[in-house]
Amino acid sequence: MRHLLFCLLLLFMPAGALAAVVVDLNSATEERLLDLQTGVSDELIHSIFAYRDKHGPFQNPEDLRQVPGMDDESFEQLFPFRLKGSIVIEVDEPKGISPY
Fold this sequence. Notes:
This protein is an alpha+beta fold. It has helices spanning about 1-10, 30-35, 40-55, 70-80; strands at about 20-25, 80-85, 85-90.
């Protein structure tokens, strides 16, 4: 439902108002995710990749809840969803880059 609302918001936003980046958590590097504004701590990002390295690729968005340090607020901030068989998150813009 939230994904649908996000898509509807995109339809009514002016062009260039949002620089969204979609990141596949099963193929992204830790460095790539650290370079983006995810809204979660770098420590949690390290935990996500340590968990993936130990347990293999995430099969469902809910698998992220098993990552040590992942609480409801962090999960909601990342808002993982399935897209074409991958588990992805959407990030607004790279750190240090502003559209203004």
